[in-house]
Amino acid sequence: MRNNKTFNSFKWSAIERIIAQFMQLFVVIVLARILGPQAFGLVALIMVFISIAQVFIDGGVLIALVRQDSCTERDYTTAFYFNIAIGLLTYAILIIIAFPLSGFYEDERIKSLLILMGSSLLFNALSIVQKARLTRELDFKTQAKASIISVFIAGLISIVMALYNYGVWALVVQYITMSFISTSILYYYSPWHPKGKFSSESFKRLYGFSYKLLLSGLIDTIYKNIYPLIIGKFFNATSVGFFNQARQLSSVPATTLTTIIQRVTFPLLSKHQNDENKLDKDYLLMLRMSAAVIFPIMIGLSLISDSLIVLLLGKEWFSIIPYFCILCWAYSFYPVHAINLNLIHVKGRSDIFLRLEILKKIVATIILIISLEFGIKGICYGLLCMSLFELFANTYYTQMLSTITMWVQFKKLGKMYVICFISAVVAYYFCCNLSPSILKMLFSLSIALSVYSALIFFFERDLVYIFRGFFLPRDK
């Protein structure tokens, strides 16, 4: 019998991620047609520094609070006060660096954009404890309301501003409004305020675990955001816009599925961290289920990339098609990476997590330096190579914490990838001579899906029955 609370948690997490992401995607598509690549490139440069500052606010405290067997009001209060202090500090630093940054990129708009967008950090700092409390209670319904409503209102405001020729400021206001409304709704539906004083004992317990996650997150965020910085300096803001839009569009399916899985499974698996058999069984099943969904989606998107980009963004964005296609293959492994790293979190091995991040970023830096010589397309191929290296590195370390070896993962996931690849090749063979159009897109997807369904039923039939039982739960 399947646990109703678990299923409802997954359902609401899925609803929130899918609706919010696709609403956001719709807004991005509309704004891209109105504003063009340069506006998106400017905001991408600003988001590098906002994202790094956000790492300090998160600080791994959300994971630390969720992972603990029990949390006291003193723990929540300590985390709240510390996050507010960090939020104010990081915002002050952003204000200071805004002036020299404008000179570095020779664009006065960057100064005002960074100062205004930085105010969102204060709203985000207020909501960390709320999210931790709701996640511990598996209350994803409230979080879904906050996310969906904030994305809708902020998106609507930004589209109106873009239509009235506010340019890049439409994107800035969208980001700030989304943070403010989301935090406000969380407090409305789940009111909480700090009780008591800051506790050094709670601080040591929480951040003794999370400081390594903070360092890992910082390294990962700097790495992910260094590409817009380098492209912006060596190329121009328009090139940043092309690259960032290709990366954003290609990553949406992978990050959406990953977020759904992580948010639900982490608190659940944490409760079974001492039951190795159950933990490993669920861990492998989640890997296989994720691959069965994300592999065909990402490879399918690369298959129809020419028709899809022209249809969604218009001919002005035609240049991103090769970038988008390559990055779809790179992001197809994203949920696999995340689930493997999730196991490290569950096991409480933040030392391994930090060591792994350092190793991967050293390799990533080498790949980036080499790929710069080949332009933006070379950078995209570099990201694909890095994704493959991450697959090897993550599974090498997680096999030390589990009975699921690297060979078992490669065998299970490799079979799924081959099935998807064959499906794409068959579809491409029949449709390669058609001109980019909706008809080509639908025809390609129909063929690929038909071949994939037949192969998955023949070679991975147990997964078909598991999916059917998972989405159609029956209580006895």
Protein architecture, described:
- By secondary structure, this protein is mainly alpha-helical.
- It has helices spanning 4-35, 37-58, 61-67, 73-105, 109-118, 120-136, 140-163, 169-189, 200-234, 237-270, 276-303, 305-313, 321-331, 334-346, 350-371, 375-398, 406-431, 438-459, 461-471.
- Helix 15 packs antiparallel against helix 16 (375-398).
- The radius of gyration is 22 Å and the shape is globular.
- The mean pLDDT is 80.
Which properties best describe this structure?
single chain, 476 residues, mainly alpha, 19 helices, globular
Q: Radius of gyration, Cα only, in angstroms?
A: 22 Å
Largest sheet: none
Q: Mean pLDDT, nearest integer?
A: 80
Cα distance spanning the termini: 6 Å
- Helix/strand/pairing category: mainly alpha
**Overall form:** globular
Q: Which residues form runs of ≥5 with pLDDT under 50?
A: none
